[in-house]
Batch of 4 targets.
Target 1
Amino acid sequence: MEPITRLLHAGDGADPAAHPAAAPIYQTAVFTFPNLDAIAGYYERGEGYLYSRNGNPSVHDLERAAADLEGCEDAVATGSGMAALVIGMLAVARGGGHVIGCGDLYGGTHALLAQAESIGFTASIVASADPDAVAAAMTPDTRLIVTELITNPKMRVNDVAALADLAHGRRARLLVDATFATPYHCRPAELGADLVMQSATKFYGGHNDVTAGVVCGRRALIEPARELSVLLGTTLAPFEAWLCLRGMKTLALRMRYQSAQAQAIAEALLKEPRVESVDYPGLPHHPDHALAQRILRGGFGPMLAFTVSGGAEGADRFLRGLKLIRFEPSLGGVTTTVSHAATTSHRLVAPEERARRGIGDGLIRLSVGCEDLTDILADLRHALAN
Ligand SMILES: Cc1ncc(COP(=O)(O)O)c(C=O)c1O
């Protein structure tokens, strides 16, 4: 069966006695034991559950489904995407290892790497994800390269296979944040990534009602990540895991529809006189279009960015002119939303660095949802006329 078919049935039969059609939520902090042999069974034979910070059936349903979707052996679910990222980094590089973050990175990732030393590893940030530029920054202590598959907010597409070859040639690992692409469009583990991370708050959950993260990979890497997650308490709660898995069941449907809408909107925005530029890997002029065609399947994702004329004032007038689409500093839901990177996700990135990365004050990031295309376009045009 295809992973999407398995996903639709994930969590089924969790309670064989009751035969529920939908998986129950194991909303419990702790589990009971009839005797000492049962406790020994947990600790010595890996039987059952002890305490929900260590593991919970609802969370394990999500972890199994995520690992399966990403084509990985195992996964750890965490209380946010940032928790998944930091757990993945620490699992490989704690104890003074060197991490390189490369390319256009989410502002939170950038800020985390900038503070790496205070949490037990060292880090360098390399502006480009070009393997030669990354190779030049590697040191004998480099244990991990971190990159985004489709970057936030400039929608660059990074060459995961080339970065994996580089990392492996120097006994390092590659962690890929694939939040914007999702496994529907690309499974970075198949291209050589050792760890794949998702902010499940976004497309995995898909409804802007849950904060969660997952990091997936080979068991030998996920086991230390899980151990850290248990010790640091970054565990995901059962209800959040259940919501996330319910959202994931429509991931393929949503991605197929939302990505097709994003392609049409990107093409339409190119023709708008008040739009200075459009960043979308599905457009032929995009600098990574050829690579995107090679590594993404079924479309180029629901995220795009465009720059309106008039800088910050133009962006503000545009945002005030929207009637249907809301300004929400997140992404990945079934409703179309916009964000303004310079004052939200990338606020902590120094202004010179933002300028170098092309994140101008007029840049609007659009997360395309499931509304009718004509309504989305009408709202965008109305706001542009503002
Ligand atoms: C690409 C990317 N990675 C990671 C994160 C962090 O995820 P979370 O907010 O779930 O911690 C975000 C959040 O916006 C993101 O856009």
Target 2
Amino acid sequence: MRIFLTGATGYIGGGVLDALVRAGHDVTALVRTNEKAKGVAKRGARPVIGNLAEPDSFADAVEAQDGYIHAAFDYSAAGGPSVEQTALQSIIAAARRPRTVASAAPATRFIIYTSGVWILGKTPEPATEDAPINPIAMASFRPKHERLVLDAADDRLRTIVVRPGVVYGGGNGMIADLFKSASNGLVRVIGDGNNHWPLVYERDLADLYARIAARDDAAGIYHANDEGDERVNDIVDAIKPYLPVKPDVRYVPIDEARNKMGAYADALALDQVVRSPRARALGWMPTLHSVAGNAARLLEEWRASRN
Ligand SMILES: NC(=O)c1ccc[n+]([C@@H]2O[C@H](COP(=O)([O-])OP(=O)(O)OC[C@H]3O[C@@H](n4cnc5c(N)ncnc54)[C@H](OP(=O)(O)O)[C@@H]3O)[C@@H](O)[C@H]2O)c1
């Protein structure tokens, strides 16, 4: 299939790119610079230089595609939810374009939107895909964007929302941040550390995207997490034996953390247990089931990514 991918130079999108190329898809990747274009070309994609904020910059590229995967996010002051909304609207318009009668393309097109589990808020019960949402401040824009994508579905367009847990593996993300501070001798845990983080290994997550792309019957919301139900304290304890020096652990009260880091403090202190039954019904089986159970390997991956 011909697939247009945003975020191919990022953490989630990078893994997705590799999984799509491995599965034999013809991937067109939106990148922002010549240098990044060379990088994704080496990994097997056709680069298109453009910007989410300027849909004209990728308008030609989105026309000839069978599928669309949005895994980018512009965290800059000029970016944020409004840029994402503009980009999604352009992608949706392209995905809904009329079909030519003689087209050899697949019968249905698809769009996959990358959301996240923070849309659920604190989950008193294990949350499946049909659980009510209660977004934390950082995810307050997600319901609108999920709806935009889900409501664009018609009989020839499948629309999908993937809500990854906190991604781990390699050198990026919240777990890599934790490894870094632990290696530097001081871990700051927001709250009491007994809160659960729903987690997912990056390569397992990428496999789910490739699966959804290939399955004509995949549509709607998919949670993606390893169901390890780990507490932050479990992770911190598990990595200690593999560090040259045992780190100090400082528990930062939530108010103090909010003053220092704003709304991100609430994300770090969030207590969530999440289930992914719809993803599992597609035959998706995460290969890693926890950070704590794979601490030595994941620390090694993190160290390797820094060289
Ligand atoms: N990481 C997680 O644990 C996690 C969990 C759940 C949900 N999510 C969500 O998944 C999405 C991706 O997260 P991530 O961790 O993969 O982020 P990331 O590593 O920071 O990657 C962001 C990607 O977006 C691209 N990008 C940013 N602004 C752009 C623009 N204006 N035009 C074109 N491309 C642009 C970046 O390109 P450059 O290389 O040019 O910067 C990069 O490829 C986000 O919505 C995030 O909230 C992440």
Target 3
Amino acid sequence: MIKQIETDRLILRAFLTTDDEAMFELDSNPEVHKYLGNDPVKTIDQSREVIKKVQQQYLDNGIGRWAAIEKSSGAFIGWSGLKLNTEMENNQINFYDVGYRLIPKYWGKGYATESAKAAIKYGFEVLHLTEIIGTVNIENIASRKALEKCGLHYVESFQWHDIPCDWLKITREEWL
Ligand SMILES: CC(C)(COP(=O)(O)OP(=O)(O)OC[C@H]1O[C@@H](n2cnc3c(N)ncnc32)[C@H](O)[C@@H]1OP(=O)(O)O)[C@@H](O)C(=O)NCCC(=O)NCCS
């Protein structure tokens, strides 16, 4: 795992245990979980568990979501980046997906797109991936748009825990 990467406006770095309060602010917000199964966390211990899980993914897989920090303010704005998905989804397993989750006051500034583009570049240039997947609730227009602005395209629709979702993809050749 690299220490951190930078975009124009963001620092993307490994999660720290001290991100727990900011993660709780993010994941306890029902608005954030509207398209994610409507199950926000209830306690900060749940956020601490999530951080531990991601830190373990760094060790096991060499990659996991990154904490996103706004350069101008130094604020934790949420997370973004790649994950090796080891659970069956749309009949696929062990694929790399790009995703993001931001605290609402940072929505609408292009941060999801900016950070995901950097993660995709990292995936192809550093991890030498052959393809990157994006999955999105069909009603989540902002997320869908961000994926498409990063060059991902629609492949098919599927159900995730009874939620209608779309499966998008970008291959290394398309990205080049
Ligand atoms: C999805 C999410 C990360 C988008 O973050 P963001 O930084 O606001 O996204 P961007 O600013 O990069 O915007 C992406 C595009 O969506 C558009 N958009 C944003 N909100 C929108 C909305 N409610 N309806 C329609 N379009 C919207 C933006 O205008 C932009 O398109 P444009 O550049 O053509 O104008 C953010 O809404 C979020 O964290 N949501 C909760 C968690 C979540 O749903 N994660 C994704 C799971 S798949």
Target 4
Amino acid sequence: MVAMTAPTHNSSLGSVRAGGSTAALRVANQRRVIDALRTGDATASITQADIARTAGLAPATVSNIVRELLLAGVVETVSGPGRGTAVLISRRAGLIAGLDIGHRHLRMAIGDLAGRVLAEHRLPLAPDHPFTQGLDMAEEMLEQLLGELQAARADVLAVGMGLPAPIDAAGLVAAASILPGWVGVDARAEAAARFGCPVHLDNDANLGALAEHRIGAGAGHDCMVYLKVSSGVGAGLILDGRLFHGGAGTAGEIGHLTVDSNGPICRCGSRGCLEAYTSVGAVGDMLHQQHPNAAMKELVAAAQEGDVAVRRTFEDVGSHLGWGVAMLANLINPSALVIGGDMAQAGDFLLDSVRGGVRRHALASVSSTLTLTVSSLGDRSGVIGALLLALDHTEVILPAAVS
Ligand SMILES: [Zn+2]
């Protein structure tokens, strides 16, 4: 199943207390300490006092549990400057991997069971690659990263994986023209067979939303939208703190809102979709005469040097996106909208006109309360989201549960 469920490491404490046995309480308290350590934030330095506060446990209880977990090799301690001894989930407790497959790249990160990234790598990928080639490369990259960490395949407990296409409730790539080499493929089963562990699959914009909401520019906003503008244009929606997948798993396809029903043919087969005016490919086509085959980085540099055509194109893209954002914002009233993907490199050249478009087309109460910003995780939001997806589905095995 594609739909992301609530983090499985949040165990039901109420029933444990009601049960009342000492062993069950011990497991529950261990779980609370572990949960306090699983922030997904690579920079977090968490002390025993922090754990006591977030887990709602007495300092002496935390101290006992940390000792048990240390003995079992589940956590380790690190003396940090200033704030006392930090407690970390040990690498020996297991590893997870995040895999972000794009139209033109493949990126993988290996993390520990707190969601901290330990190693990461990126490679270019041919746009119309067959899925077997994508998975071959992913497997090689996994071997390489594990080699860097002196870890083994068996250490990897789960893989989170993102694909730049709508993924239906059955876990299949749902749109024939969008990621041709993967159509009808059960990507999760194929990847699980390669990696030898459970694989959790979602759309790339959904994973970007997960990452930006948890540790990026959307942190603290329980109703937020991540808008990915790259080769494709799609949105990941966080509603009431959770990813929203829709009835068939493909919510957020904002790129296929119709701007002009007589407009250019879109790769989805329809006409005049938002994506046909705002994707990186559309920008490349618009600027083909002035800047043939230019990368986004080069176009942004040209805009900074005052290139009128590039600035005007970014402005037009921003206005169109602003219209699309306004449609979505009027419906769901998010408090934050985070723009990511390659187009986000255009920064204020884009954002100013997105804001203008939102002001023009959304209700004042909606636009005036919307924080609009670019992604803080940049081109890593997809892979970090994939890692967090794996994290949410992977339990730390507790010593009390084993004994
Ligand atoms: Zn379309």
